[in-house]
Design brief:
- This protein is mainly α and 98 residues long.
- It is 84% helix and 0% strand.
- Helix 2 (9-26) runs antiparallel to helix 3, helix 3 runs antiparallel to helix 4 (51-69) and helix 4 (51-69) runs antiparallel to helix 5 (74-97).
Length: 98
């Protein structure tokens, strides 16, 4: 995420994707730490303007959190709000292209 902070998005994505792979392999596809990796990728894609990818990654975050923590947990609700925001950005981008 430090690379993301200094604007080196390609490097940031490479490390975030590697972290996701390792978390899935070591902790499992439905572990909360795996969800954290999906969320970090969603944020990175959002910063890059890749809103469809950000929404897709946040959806995976949300699905894991619902399963592990339930719908009423604040982290799950935060993820749901992020998903809505990313989807709204995607729809706005698509409307500007028309």
């Amino acid at each position: 995420m430090m690379y993301q902070d200094i604007g080196k998005m390609n490097t940031a994505l490479r490390y975030l994707q590697e972290a996701l792979k390792k978390n899935e392999r070591l902790l499992g596809e439905e572990h909360i730490q795996t969800a954290v990796c999906y969320h970090a990728l969603a944020i990175a894609f959002n910063c890059m303007g890749a809103f469809k990818l950000s929404h897709q990654h946040e959806k995976k975050t949300y699905d894991i959190l619902v399963k592990q923590l339930g719908e009423e947990d604040s982290r799950t609700r935060d993820s749901q709000n992020c998903m809505k925001t990313f989807k709204m950005h995607e729809l706005q981008l698509n409307s500007w292209r028309l």
